[in-house]
Structure formats: structure tokens, C-alpha cells
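user: Please supply your own:

assistant:
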Amino acid sequence: MTRRRGTLFVVSAPSGAGKTTLCREARLRLPDLAYSVSYTTRAPRPGEIEGTDFVFVPEAKFRSLQERGEFAEWAIVHGNLYGTRATVLEEALREGLDVLLDIDTQGAMQLRARYPEAVLVFIVAPSLAELDQRLRERRSDVETEIARRLARARDEVKLWRRYDYLVVNRDLKEAAEHLTAIITAERCRTARLVLDIPDLEVPD
């Protein structure tokens, strides 16, 4: 009964706030939600799968794609390059698919400029102390890297009002419910829909 173009749902957060886990939960709860796999030059972390978590490429390959204008957004994050292929997004949107993107604040602002109708969601931990603890529990970063990530987190949090929604990740289940509720509500927004009811003429 309704038709619409797909919607981009862009999720950003400081490192350690839990955005990747929350995006994974959202995809489990909303199986029709497409997920954009970013390109990156960083090495895979334990348990990450090529083509599922990221497309891992050498810097030369990334730069070649960048120079050809094939990224809808790209950024340097913690010394590594990250980017989203534009053709993947455009194809999904044309087909009416909603796409979830797990990207940093730089990329989010680029996508907002390119797709003004995109929905931006910012995830935060309850406190910097909690963020520090989560980063240490990952046991994947040395002390200097943790300090760098916390310093960047302070800058990223200042951008939260440039997003449409804020989710505080105190509890994973509660935060996942909030994120999926945002996506569900935006899917029902009248401005995004064309209503088609048989035997009833409904103006756009």
C-alpha cells in the first residue's frame, strides 16, 4: 500500500561506545535492513570477516578508488582510510531498500551534505570513564592509542547536536531497542511515503 525511496541510516559514535554491536543488533531485529560494508586500509581485527565487516584493501587501491570519485564519503580515522562506495548506496536506494551505515563523524557529515534526507544517529557511552574502561577491555590497543581515542572522543561528542537522534548506550538491550525504534518510526514518516490504496484516490 505504500511506496518510497530507500533511506540512509547513518550511525556514528566515539570508539568504544558500541556502535558496531548496536548496528549488528539492529540488523538482527530488522532483517530487511541493508548494511553498507565500508572499505578500509586497516588490518582486520580478530574475528572480522572480509566482505562482511569491511572490505580490506591496500592504500594504493583505496586512493585509486578515491581519485575516480567512487566514494560517497571517505575519511582518515586513527591513521587509517575508510570509505563508502557510492554505487552500492545508489542502487539500494533506487530499489527502495533502507541502508544502515556504521561510520565516523567525518563521513556522516559528508553523507548529510550529499543526502540531506539521511537520518543521523549518534551513540554515546554514559561517561568518558565508562568509555575508557570499554577500550581497555577490548585489549586491542596500547596505552598511547587508548589516550588518542579518548581525546578524539571528546571532539566527536561535541558534534552530537548535528545528528537527528542521540542514543546513550548504558545497556545494550535498551540501546538496541531505541535504535530500532528510530528506524521503524522514520520508515513510517509521511514525507517519505507514497500511499496507494485501491479504489481510493489519495493525493501525494
Notes: The chain has a mean pLDDT of 91. The first strand starts at residue 2 and ends at 3. The chain is about 40% helix and 20% strand. The longest helix spans residues 172-187.
